[in-house]
Amino acid sequence: MEYAKIDKDVFVRHPGNPILTAFDFPLRIRAVYNSSAVKLQNGKYVMLCRVNQLNHMTLLWGADSNDGIHFKVRPEPFEMPKDELWKAVSRSVYYDPRITFIDGQYIVLIACEGDQGCRVAMFRSKDLNSLEFVNYINVPDNRNMVIFPEKFSDGRYLRLERPSTSAHGGKGNIWLSFSPDLIHWGDSREIIKTTELWNFAISGLGPSTVPVRVKEGWLILFHSIMQNCTTREYSVGAAIIDGEKPWIVKHLAKHPVLYPQAEYEMRGLVEHVCFPCAKIIEPDGTVKLYYGGADTVQCLATARLEDIIFACKNW
Ligand code: BMA
Questions:
Q1: Of 73, 187, 291, 296, which sits 20 to 30 A from 270 (CA to CA)?
Q2: Percent above pLDDT 90 for the chain
Q3: Residues 162, 118: Cα–Cα separation, whole Å
Q4: Which atom of ligand 1 is nearest to the CA of 96?
Q5: How far is CA 133 from CA 78, 123, 128, in A?
Q6: Rounded to two decimals, what is the model's pTM?
Q7: In this structure, which residue's CA is closest to atom 1 in ligand 1?
Q8: At residue 170, does pLDDT exceed 70?
Q9: How many CB atoms lie under 10 A from the CB of residue 124?
Q10: What are the φ/ψ torsions at residue 28 (nearest 5 degrees)?
Q11: Measuring from atom 12 of ligand 1, which residue has the nearest CA?
């Protein structure tokens, strides 16, 4: 009989988890989770933290680190736009930042929910000390956008995204789109469907971290959702798409590479959630995955890049 003989974990949770909690902030907050981190060219790390205030309205708050593990929270959150449209678009929350370094600058995408459903706001920054708002880059309802760190062979930008369609009763599938200028997107293709991943992703999928080039193509990690009687379980899946024709999925792990198991992932404001927003590949092949635990705390897990690729090919 054929079945997956998985005898070890790909990701190992950091022993210091959670690496950031509400108590690390200078003010009373409720939660910090689903944050994104990048390694700057000077070797230092910056995290853009999703913070829930006591009333669960969100803030985006920076934190800095020398090792990508111990983060020092800045004194103040980021300034966000002051205009009426921003207030309307993000009236409920702005959340789950994703950061791509391209064209010598950081592009930060933030999902916003308010009067218009879910839209994604694009910001740019030279150094992640402040953010400049650029535009909204979709009509509702679309989220979980990540921009590739390289352009396509014809000069267009690429992004993965998750338009919220109710096909198959889930939240939607992973799509790939192209753009000449980061603002206007199209030529879209659906590339990974929930139905290819029964059961752990049957209720939805979403790209979660910026794709990274590997020998086999682009390695992508995504979150997967499985609704059951009591929870919606969020795990982390992995796939490799073609390096030249990224709409072709070459390898897809049929099992999650990280799933809720630790106490801080099982219990919290939303139970059974591992929700990644960023990964950093260190020169020695260690992958640092930054993910939120139970919509309450910020966590870190590490893996060997080759072990994730093995899972994509063999699980
Ligand atoms: C998703 C997003 C994430 C959150 C997850 C679990 O829809 O809102 O920010 O972590 O649900 O609640």
A1: 73
A2: 92
A3: 11
A4: 9
A5: 12, 4, 13
A6: 0.97
A7: 275
A8: no
A9: 15
A10: -70, 120
A11: 270
pLDDT tens-digit profile of 186-233?
Answer: 999 999 999 888 789 999 999 999 999 999 999 999 999 999 989 999
Rounded CA separation 272/264 (Å)? 9
Q: Do the Cβ atoms of 108 and 97 come closer than 8 Å?
A: yes
pLDDT at residue 167 is higher than 90: no
Ligand 1 cavity residues, CB under 6 Å: 34, 95-96, 234, 270, 273, 275, 292, 295
Q: How far is CA 31 from CA 17, 227, 259, in A?
A: 14, 23, 20
Give 250-296 pLDDT, tens digit per residue: 999 999 999 999 999 999 999 999 999 999 999 999 999 999 999 99
Residue at token pair 């198991």? 261
The Cβ-side half-sphere exposure at 141, using a 13 Å CA radius, reads 13
Residue nearest ligand 1's atom 2 by CA: 96
pLDDT band at 71 (very low <50, low <70, confident <90, very high): very high
Give the integer Cα–Cα distance in Å for 290 and 99.
Answer: 12
| pLDDT level of residue 35 (50, 70, 90 thresholds) | very high
pLDDT tens digit string along 117-164? 999 999 999 999 999 999 999 999 999 999 999 999 999 999 999 998
Of 273, 298, 299, the residue with max ligand 1 atoms within 8 A of its CB, to mutate for a pocket test, comes to 273
